[in-house]
Amino acid sequence: MSWTIITIPTLYNLLSKLPMNQWVWKIEDYPYQTEFLELRQRLLYAEKENKKRSKELSSALDEIKRVVEKRENSTGNHTDDTRWNVLNLTSKLFMHLANMYYYLPHLQEHEDSLRPNVVISQGRTGVSLVMGIPTVKREKQSYLIDTLNSLFFDASEEQKNDCVVIIFVVNAEYVNSIAEDVRTRFPNEVQSGVLEVISPPASYYPDLSTLKETFGDSKERVRWRTKQNLDYSFLMLYAQPKGTFYLQLEDDIIAKPQYIQSVKSFALKQSSEWMVLEFSQLGFIGKLFKSEDLPFIVEFFLMFYKDKPIDWLLDHLLWVKVCNPEKDAKHCDKQKAHLRIRSKPSLFQHVGFHSSLAGKIQNLKDKDFGKNALHKAHVNPPATVTTSLKVYQHYTLERAYEGKDFFWAFAPVAGDYILFSFLEPLTVEGYLFKSGNIEHPGDKLNNSTVEALPADVSVLLATEEHNCSHFNGIFENGVAEGIISPSVGKIQAIRLSIHSNSSVWVLLNEVPGKKAN
C-alpha cells in the first residue's frame, strides 16, 4: 500500500480547481466531506489575509523608504521626530506576521506586546549587513563590551556605514544601564547609527512556568531555551527591514580581522538557493540569512518554540524544505547542503565561559577558527626600552620591540610612560603604535601622546614647550601613526606618555619605527 502526501498549498490548488457542483458528495462515500469543506473555506480566508498583509507590509516598507529619503535629503541633522517615525514604522512590521497571534495568543491581550523599546537608534536602514546580538545579565561576567570592541576593531568607516549592530537586551530592567555603558564606550558608533540598543516588552513573553520537560533537560533549562527562541524571533523581525543580510551573533564572541568583507564576499559568490551561510560551527553563532527570508524562518521557529533549541529547529526547517522521507539520511544531508553552506575557516569564536543560563559553564571552542595573529613583528633599530607600567607575566616591552610577542601591562595611571631610547641618535621618518588586539580589543591606549626627544638640544630650546621632548602625535582609537618632521633632526628617544587613569589594561601589538635611509 502506498501513501501520497499532499501539502496544504497543493491541496488548496486541487480543491480550488473543482467546480462547486463537484463538491457535493454523499456522506457515506466521503465521510470527511464536512472537514474538506471547512478546510477549503479556511484556506480561502488564509489566502485573502495573506494578500492583505503582503499589501500592508509593502506599504509600510515604502513609507519607511520615503521617511529615510526625506531625512537624507534634508540639510543638517535629522530631527528626533523623524527618527522616531522610522522606528515606529519599523516596529509595526511585527503586526504583519499575522500568525504570531496564533502561536502566541496571549499577545492579543496587550496592544504593545510587539512594540520594541528602542533606547538607542538613529533609524538606519538600507544597509548590506545587519548584525543581531542578544545579551542577558550574567551572574559572573559580562562579555558584551569586549564583543563590540572585537567587531569594530579594524572595521573601516566605509564598512561601518554599511552595517547596523543591534543589541537586544533580554532583561528589560537592565537595558538603560547597558545603553549608558554603550554610549560611553562607543560614542561615535552610537551617533552615526551603527549601534542600536533595544529590548522587548515584558508582555511579549507567554507564561513559561508550565513547559513540558523534554530531552532530559531540567525545567529551568527548558524555560531558558524556550525564551531564547522567542528572543531570536523578536530580534530577527525587528532587524528584517533594515538591510539585505542578517547575521546572528552572540554577546560572548570575537571576530577575525576583516570579517565584514569576508562575509559579504562569501555571500555574493553563492547561488540564489541558499537559506543559511555558516561562519561558525557552534550553535547559532555566525549564521547569515537573507533578510527577505526572515519572516518565514521566524514563523517556523514560533511553531515549535516550546519544543526544541533554536539550532535544532533550523535543521528541521531545512529538512522540511528539501528532504524526501523515502530517502535515507545521507541523501537528506546532501540536499540540505544546498541550503546550508559552510564557510571555513570560521570567522567567529566563542569566548564566554559563564553561560547566560545561571550556573552553567560553557567552554565551547570552534576548532575551525584557528589562531589569530596577536602581534605584528618589525625590524626596529637597536634601543633600550623601559616603562613604568606593571608588566603582565612574560609579555614584556623588550619582547614586543624585538617582534617576538605583544606587550601587555596592568591598567595605567596618569604619568605612566613607555620609553624607547636609541643606542645611537638616528633620523626617524615616522612611527606606528597599535594597541589592543583581536582577542583583547579593549586594552587600548587612550589619552596618550607620542613625543620625540631630539639629539640636538637646541631644537628643544626653539620650541615653546618646557619639557624634555618634542610633541609629535596622539593616540586615536588605540592607534598612533605619524611622521617626524625633518626639522627635528636626529632622534635620541621616543616616549609614549599616558595622561589619565584607565580602568582597562594596555596592550601594544605593533611597535615599528621607520628609520630614514
Describe how the helices and strands are arranged.
Elements: H1 8-16, H2 33-73, H3 80-92, H4 100-103, E1 117-120, E2 127-135, H5 144-152, H6 157-160, E3 163-169, H7 175-185, H8 187-192, E4 195-199, H9 219-239, E5 243-248, E6 253-255, H10 259-268, E7 276-278, E8 287-290, H11 294-303, H12 310-322, H13 329-339, E9 340-342, E10 348-350, E11 383-387, H14 397-401, E12 407-409, E13 417-426, E14 428-435, E15 448-454, H15 457-461, E16 470-474, E17 479-483, E18 491-498, E19 506-510, E20 513-515
Parallel strand pairs: 2-3, 2-5, 3-4, 7-9
Antiparallel strand pairs: 1-4, 5-8, 6-10, 7-8, 11-13, 12-19, 13-18, 14-17, 14-19, 14-20, 15-16, 15-18
Short description:
InterPro entries: Glyco_transf_54, MGAT4, MGAT4_A/B/C_C. Among the domains are: 118-350, Spore Coat Polysaccharide Biosynthesis Protein SpsA, Chain A (Alpha-Beta Complex), CATH 3.90.550.10; 383-510, Galactose-binding domain-like (Jelly Rolls, Sandwich), CATH 2.60.120.260.
Model description:
This protein has 517 residues and is of the alpha+beta class. Among the domains are: 118-350, Spore Coat Polysaccharide Biosynthesis Protein SpsA, Chain A; 383-510, Galactose-binding domain-like (Jelly Rolls, Sandwich), CATH 2.60.120.260. Helix content is 33%, strand content 21%. The protein has 15 helices and 20 strands. Helix 2 runs antiparallel to helix 3 (80-92), helix 9 packs antiparallel against helix 11 and helix 12 crosses helix 13. The radius of gyration is 29 Å and the shape is elongated. Mean pLDDT is 79; it is low at 1-30, 75-79 and 82-87.
